[in-house]
Amino acid sequence: MVEKPYKYKKPPPNQTRILVNRPAPWAADEQLTGWVHGVKASPEEERYARALRKHRLDFDFQVEFPASAGFSGKVEFVVSEKQPVIIYEEAVYMTSEQRGQNKLREMVLTQMLRQKGMRNLQTVWYYTLQTQEQADTIVKENMGWQ
User: Fold this and answer.
1) What local confidence, expressed as pLDDT, does residue 51 receive?
2) Alpha carbon 132 to chain centroid distance?
3) Residue 100 is assigned to a structural domain of this protein
4) 24 in any annotated domain
5) DSSP per residue over 27-41, as a string?
6) C-alpha closest to that of 129 among 52, 69, 43
7) Host domain of residue 112
8) Does residue 82 come out as left (phi exceeding 0), alpha (psi in the -120 to 50 range) or beta?
9) Per the domain annotation, does 41 fall within a domain?
């Protein structure tokens, strides 16, 4: 009788992967349409709009204000005619000059909107809106003045 050599068991591959600063995958059942008020929207913008609707807040989408100092006066949302909101997309690839221009644009927009009787410009980052639950939480926390 021939003996078979002993085969050592291989350890199982590490099943846990640490995902640091990576957006969560989209839920397949979310059924995002890509449109808000008939205007093309990113998934994050659509989630934010759904959260506003869930909390019964009136809003306008993609609102353009008269530009000043060479900056665009466009904001993603104006909630209840008094709270402007900008949703920033991924800023990893921005240069420091582009980041500075964004900050200056925010300051100019805030000043211009304050003169119109609106609140300070609110900035929401894309990575805080990766799921509908996150968007609901952001709206609930930030629109507490309603």
Assistant:
1) 94
2) 11
3) yes
4) no
5) PGGG---SEETTEE-
6) 43
7) 35-132
8) alpha
9) yes
**CA–CA separation, 60 and 84 (whole Å):** 9
Name the amino acid, one letter, at 68. S
Say how far apart CA 51 and CA 9 lie, in whole Å.
51
Tokens standing for 7?
């085969």
For residue 103, give the CATH number of its domain. Answer: 3.40.960.10
CA distances from 85 to 7, 22, 63, 95, 128 (A): 62, 23, 10, 23, 14
The two structure tokens encoding residue 146 = 């309603």
Neighbours of 112 (CB within 10 A): 19
15 in any annotated domain:
no
Using the structure block, give the residue that is written with the tokens 């709270």: 83
Quick one: 41 exposed, middle or buried, by C-beta within 10 A (0-12, 13-18, 19+)? buried
| pLDDT tens-digit readout, 62-96 | 999 887 767 778 899 999 999 999 998 776 667 88
Domains in the chain: how many in total? 1
**Pair type for strands 122-125 and 83-88:** parallel
Amino acid at 111: Q
CA distance 54 to 50: 6
